[in-house]
Amino acid sequence: MGHKTVPVTRTAVPRARLDAASAPKVAATLQALATPSRLLILARLREGSLPATELATAVGMEQSACSHQLRLLRNLGLVVGERRGRSVVYGLYDHHVAELLDQALYHVEHLQLGLSETPERDVDEDMDQDVAQVAGASALE
């Protein structure tokens, strides 16, 4: 079933630039996380794999509605299903999905507590990027 889900530890994720080719894929993933029912499914699967029928009960959804959401999550590569006898057992695709959930929860908790973490940034590099963006926007006008 996909990659093994492992306990999440706070590690630095390699930073990649978002480009025009990957932006739609990232947007689709984030849109999938924008639905409370899907988040509940992913959060429950974060605890371990479950057959679809048990998962529906665990998250308080009708079987058909849960199956619909699982199909969407599977198509986006967030969950995997493995047939076992007459049922399909679902789990998270890999530890990256668990990390997405953890980071989203961590962010919301920080907002609720009024905390912020200022990432270390190169101010000169950020200003250069801002100037380039403004220049690019002016050229389009």
Describe the structure.
With 141 residues, the protein is mainly α. Helix content is 56%, strand content 10%. It is built from 6 helices and 3 strands; from the N terminus they run H-H-E-H-H-E-E-H-H. It has a 3-stranded antiparallel sheet with strand order 1-3-2. The longest helix is centred in the last third of the chain and has 19 residues, at 95-113. The N and C termini lie far apart (51 Å).
List keywords for this structure.
single chain, 141 residues, mainly alpha, three-stranded antiparallel sheet, 6 helices, 3 strands, 56% helix, 10% strand, globular
Topology:
Layout: H1 23-32, H2 36-46, E1 50-51, H3 52-59, H4 63-75, E2 79-84, E3 87-92, H5 95-113, H6 123-140
Antiparallel strand pairs: 1-3, 2-3
Helix pairs in contact: 2-3, 3-4
Q: Which descriptor suits the 3D outline?
A: globular
Structural class: mainly alpha
Helix and strand pattern: HHEHHEEHH
Number of helices: 6
Between the first and last Cα atoms, what is the distance in angstroms? 51 Å
What percent of residues are in strands? 5-15%
How large is the radius of gyration?
A: 19 Å
Helix content estimate: 55-70%
- Contiguous runs where pLDDT drops below 50 for at least 5 residues: 1-8
Q: Strand count, sense and closure of the main sheet?
A: 3 strands, antiparallel
Overall pLDDT? 81
What's the assembly state of these chains? single chain
Number of strands: 3
Instruction: State the strand order across the main sheet.
Output: 1-3-2
